[in-house]
Description:
By secondary structure, this protein is mainly alpha-helical. The protein has helices at 7-27, 34-62, 67-76, 82-89, 102-113.
Amino acid sequence: xxxxxxxxxxxxxxxxxxxxxxxxxxxxxxxxxxxxxxxxxxxxxxxxxxxxxxxxxxxxxxxxxxxxxxxxxxxxxxxxxxxxxxxxxxxxxxxxxxxxxxxxxxxxxxxxxxxxxxxx
Length: 120
């Protein structure tokens, strides 16, 4: 079987074009592998979960009987230990869950200790 002389350069051109397309796609085109997409999706889901649960945690902290004392204790605590204080209060455990999410506790502490802003 005889292959025409123009076939070899055409095949090399197609291979080179495919490689160039992949380099451009992964570098500037925003393409990602399946593993990277799964990691990014998991991180986005965790961020959304924290954003949804932190305000619930903060409200639960404010609804405690001795909330004013606990809030004063929270603001007096160093920033790196605030999540532990929130976890010890028990408000970070959501109904139907038995586990504590430290990201939610940190976000809850951040909400509780940020200065109040007026909405005018």
